[in-house]
Amino acid sequence: TRTAILISGRGSNMAALLAAARDPAYPAEIALVLSNRPDAAGLARAADAGVPTAVVDSRAFKGDRPGFEAAMEQALAAHRIGLIALAGFLRVLTPGFVGRWDGRLVNIHPSLLPAFPGLETHERALAAGVRLHGCTVHLVSAGVDEGPILAQAAVPVLPGDTPATLAARVLAQEHRIYPAALAWVAAGRVRVADGRALLDGMAV
Ligand code: GRF
To answer: How far is the C-alpha of 150 from the C-alpha of 167, rounded, in Å?
Structure first.
């Protein structure tokens, strides 16, 4: 499946997906890395890996979300993309876009959803005093950081943790579960029933 990775920044999850996809047996072919920011560090990493890149600068579409998404759709169509992996992509997508990509739009989020949707998840986990934190890969449905869960990994919150130390512990797990979960979707092994993802017909 020709797959696009959408990024806004560093792109470490993108790099993990690119590394997994180097295996010819991996079911997703990373055919495009698309950034909404021209200065995203991940763009250079993708280019170094020989992957086509594109930029649709969201600042050029201030107040025009439909225009921004139309430009993204154009880039995705030009590269014949059939599956999208959001990897640190910091723009909220409209229900129209999400609906068009229903079942073919995957996201990674740095918390154990449904806890801590949105930004600054590590700060909020520390403030809440939770003892377990983690990350979630999910299919994207209408709401922000909502949708059928594909995979989760938990990490302990340790004494003395800062947002940065906790983020690093979570990130290592993100890099592990995202390639696995994306492969399930690319291979057509995921189906959604009653808002929950089934893998090979069984609850994940
Ligand atoms: C990751 O923690 C991801 O879960 C979140 O934003 C961060 C992006 O990091 N959505 P990177 O760009 O993949 O390094």
So the answer is: 21
CA nearest ligand 1 atom 14, residue: 12
Name the catalytic one among 109, 122, 138, 175: 109
Cα–Cα distance, 53 to 35 (Å, whole number): 8
pLDDT digits (tens, 9 = 90+) for 185-196: 999 999 999 999
Domain count, the chain: 1
Token duo for residue 192: 């959604």
Q: What is the CA radius of gyration of the chain?
A: 16
Ligand 1 centroid, distance to 179 Cα (angstroms): 14
Could you list the residue range(s) of the whole structural domain that residue 142 is in? 2-203
Gap from CA of 17 to ligand 1 centroid (Å): 12
Q: At 168, is the pLDDT very low, low, confident or very high (cuts 50, 70, 90)?
A: very high
The domain that contains 61 carries what CATH number?
A: 3.40.50.170
Q: Whose CA is nearest to atom 5 of ligand 1?
A: 88
pTM, to two decimals:
0.97
Decide if 138 is catalytic.
Answer: no
